[in-house]
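A favour, since you know our structure tokens better than I do. Go ahead and set the record down below.
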Amino acid sequence: MSAVSNGQDFPRSARLLTARDYRHVFNRRQSLRSRHFALYYFRRQLTPQAAELASELTLNEPQGARLGLVVGKRRLSGSVQRNQMKRVAREAFRTRRSELPSVDLVLRLQRNPMAGRVSPARWRRALAQEIGFLLNDLLSTVRQGDLSKSGT
């Protein structure tokens, strides 16, 4: 393993770690939806009000996107499939993280993507593509200036 970062790693600072972090994103309730996922987001900006929040939330690194995942047993009952889905989501995020602004994201599985007979490889490719579309939509939203400001 190389200690050199190429900008596409997935460090601890790129993850939502606490219930408070998740709650902060869910309370803003801005979201994008796809067939199987809901992507909740909140843009972080270090204004004076946000600096106060940063001390409460674990915002040690003001720059860069952070990801949290919610994959319930009700939606995907097998632990192997849940972990595969999380791996696919983290990989899609990791490769696109450098393009994203300072935003907290929570990707939530809404529907079981395993319904029907689909090979695991095809399932993973389809999920990666769907998550990629959500991230593209998020970038379009950012360009339009529709993300909320911190503290509003």
